[in-house]
Amino acid sequence: MSVEEGLTRLLGRWAAGSVVVGSALSAIPATRGFGRQTLAWGVVDGAIAYAGIRKRSSAGPTDPRRLRRILLLNAGADVGYLVAAGALLRRPRWRGDALAVLVQGGFLLALDAGAAARLR
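The structure corresponding to this sequence follows.
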């Protein structure tokens, strides 16, 4: 399995889990913010994974150098998510949302940076 295939599959599984967990936690008042963010990230991650599968099936695999650049740009965005979430942690109203963004951003940073490292 290629790095790109593994990346897409793992992202798809993460997305599915995020949708399930986010949906359940959104229904509980105490975890609504965390659940809402987790669900939203799951939907977006699922769409990205699906687009990757479709693109690969129609156009073939992405050039590894191009994929590595994209992953490194994504890793930079992931760091931005973590910084923004850290700032939101100080606001009680947004704490649940911020914690979910920390979880999602941390996972995506590990995923993107790890895949980029394998493409060296």
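The chain has a mean pLDDT of 96.
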